[in-house]
Amino acid sequence: MEKYSVMGRIGEGAHGSVLLGRRKSDDKEVALKKILVKKLEDGIPTAIIREIKTMQVLHNPYVMRLLDHFPKGTGFVLVFDYMPSGLWEMIHDDKSALTEPLIKSYMKMLLKGLDHMHKNGIMHRDLKPANLLVGSDGILKIGDFGQARTIWKEKNGKRPYTQQVATRWYRAPELLYGARLYTEAIDLWAVGCIFAEMFLKRPLFPGETDIDQLALVIKNLGTPTEEIWPGHAQLPDFNKISFAPSKPKSWDVLLPGVPASAQNLAREFVKYDSARRMRPQEALNHKYFFSPPKEIPEHDLPVPHHDHRAELKTRDHDKEEHLFAFQDLRLFLDPVL
Prior knowledge:
Blueprint: E1 4-13, E2 16-23, E3 28-36, H1 46-57, E4 66-72, E5 75-81, E6 85-86, H2 87-92, H3 100-119, E7 122-123, E8 132-134, E9 140-142, E10 149-150, H4 173-176, H5 185-200, H6 210-221, H7 251-254, H8 260-269, H9 280-284, H10 308-333
Antiparallel strand pairs: 1-2, 2-3, 3-5, 4-5, 6-8, 7-10, 8-9
Helix pairs in contact: 3-5, 5-8
Keywords: ATP-binding, Kinase, Nucleotide-binding, Serine/threonine-protein kinase, Transferase
Domain Protein kinase: 4-289
Binding site for ATP: 39
């Protein structure tokens, strides 16, 4: 830690905190992710080793790089490039519109990064806007590899994984049905949900519980059949719950006002049958990327403010205070009115 000076706090997570730091040797700004370790005497936890090894394998402009790692006190520190913003912030910043050219740029960068990961035998398993970071050069990078795993090729990919992965709104239906034998295609479902969210400014399927999540998917995509999703009735949790029969909604309803080529691309990812989901390299050749408007060249990408996350938190706090003040005023005036 003596190589770095701490400048402030970026955020808190379930497993530790992220600090803003500066590398003393060249004054470079970095993010210091401190992971708490319950019993350091037992050695470095497997989860941390996996995250480090995963990131050491990946070398791509659209994937976060690990600059350094070391033990510190009762934890372990991972060092990354400082990223002032993320896709979640870019989606929810009312002061900077997420235009279609910018959506197209972000989507291309996400697909290129994911293509690199999958070709190197790594699936992310927790893709969501909050884990897609935006740097001071405007480039989007895939980050947070805490749930990433090697793609098993032996036994025809039949080695089981845990089904308790991915954030609910971006969780593929096979996971919601308890599948433990799955592929990197779970990342592709998440990509489709993220792509739709960039247009909608809200999650495509915002379920409140796992059952509600599955119900929302079925309500919008229709009741799965053996023809469109072979083998789904054999999934571990399929017989534990049933839903009312539903017909699929039109993508004009799911993505209103969105160009047909963009709707088509989203549909290629958001499919029940994981084997039929479009792979990243194929998606990069989709007609959506060759239809107007063109994406923004990387050297012209909008650059987030240095403290973009903090700015949004401050704005949200001010909005809440304004709302509470307005409600208090209404309560005061209502008896008079």
